[in-house]
Design a protein that fits this description.
By secondary structure, this protein is an alpha/beta fold. Helices cover 55% and strands 7% of the residues. The chain contains 19 helices and six strands.
């Protein structure tokens, strides 16, 4: 039996109740199937993984945080945030934990990294048995719209702690020395209370000190930031976020114990995002895969925006909320966008039949012609005709030329 060793590991992990281990072995099996060219089986496994992740997202649970990790007084809605002395601008805003929201959609590596942090904070005693402490500082970086700020909010919600969000417009001052003082005051406030400190747009504070475009003041700011990050470890959890990781001073990276890169979602994550953002419309799995395939390379925020526009277009079109209606609405939405870097999206915007030619001839999708027919509204005989014509090839040559 092919891949028996991996199947055996999956069974062993499942019987032992090791969910994380089982998922890793299933991912191994998926990789092997793809390398062996067994695309239909790989698609089935990918769908099972996606369904499993969706089930876990429905009921996220809070983490019991040890008081040895996060210390301080309790923050209340009556607590006044610190302010800039010259302008009176607030240095931060405070968000209090409410109902647990839906879990953000991640690729497997990111999902495991975030869950690993939550596991550390809920069970520090296990770590101390091997003489290590739970992670107290996390740097999240990646392109805009990838869900970095949502991740920080998700972590604070899961921990059941208030989130103190630094306000860059309040921290940065034109007065000499004031920005450094504001940073110190912000950290003093966060260290006093039980909370998670979020430093969004972190590159605005932590730029390289040898940047020739910056004046000497940036060195004072970064030095103050580094000192306060070191002191913060004794008090609580700190999360920093940036879209521009290349601008960060090298010394800043060492102040964060864990670095997580959140990029554009892969096909599995895009599929789950499309399902979520199209609700209450529930297309068949084949159509969801086609939409995700078409939106490959888009950020989570882009996918949400396009799905919202699709729903508006569908609602006003008068068409049924079925495969044909959704497919035509997506084509109309993409046609209104100014440009496309991704060839499938460009093709669907200009020529839906050429797009169908593309997906019927793409072995990586492994969709049956009957599924494509139901997803697009074209009859199976027409699908067969389009597939044989391979109309997309000529357009692909033009696009590449």
């Amino acid at each position: 039996m092919d891949h028996f060793s991996v199947v055996q590991s999956i069974i062993r992990s499942g019987l032992g109740g090791d969910q994380a281990g089982m998922e890793k072995q299933v991912q191994r099996l998926l990789t092997r199937l793809e390398k062996a060219g067994q695309q239909k089986e790989a698609v089935t496994i990918r769908r099972l993984l996606s369904s499993s992740a969706e089930i876990r997202e429905i009921t996220p649970s809070r983490v019991e945080v040890s008081r040895s990790i996060v210390t301080g007084e309790e923050l209340t809605p009556d607590t006044n945030p610190p302010i800039d002395r010259e302008t009176g601008a607030q240095l931060c805003t405070i968000e209090f934990p409410g109902e647990l929201a839906t879990v953000p959609v991640y690729e497997q590596n990111v999902r495991e990294a975030i869950q690993g942090l939550l596991d550390e904070w809920s069970n520090p005693e296990a770590l101390r048995c091997v003489e290590v402490e739970p992670t107290r500082s996390l740097l999240i970086f990646g392109p805009p719209g990838s869900g970095k700020t949502m991740t920080a909010r998700h972590i604070a919600q899961r921990l059941g702690l208030p989130l103190v969000i630094a306000r860059i417009d309040g921290l940065i001052s034109s007065f000499l020395g004031t920005t450094a003082r504001n940073i110190a005051n912000l950290f003093d406030f966060a260290n006093r209370y039980t909370c998670v400190l979020l430093l969004d747009e972190f590159d605005a504070l932590a730029k390289q000190r040898d940047d020739p475009q910056e004046i000497g003041e940036i060195k004072r700011v970064v030095n103050t930031l580094l000192q306060n990050l070191d002191l913060r470890r004794e008090h609580g959890v700190t999360i920093a976020i940036t879209n521009h990781d290349r601008l960060l001073d090298p010394a800043v990276w060492r102040r964060f114990e864990t670095h997580v890169h959140i990029g554009e979602p892969n096909l599995e994550a895009s599929t789950r995002l499309v399902k979520r953002f199209l609700l209450p419309i529930k297309p068949d799995d084949a159509l969801v895969i086609i939409i995700a395939y078409c939106l490959e390379g888009r950020s989570g925020a882009d996918i949400q925006r396009i799905c919202t526009s699709l729903k508006r277009t569908l609602a006003l079109s008068g068409q049924a909320h079925n495969g044909q209606g959704v497919f035509h609405a997506l084509s109309a939405v993409l046609a209104r966008l100014p440009s496309h870097d991704h060839f499938p999206a460009k093709l669907l915007a200009a020529d839906p039949e050429a797009f169908i030619s593309l997906i019927t001839n793409d072995s990586n999708l492994s969709l049956k012609q009957s599924d494509i027919s139901a997803a697009t509204g074209y009859g199976q005989s027409k699908i067969s005709e389009i597939k044989k014509a391979k109309r997309h090839l000529a357009l692909m040559e033009v696009s590449n030329g």
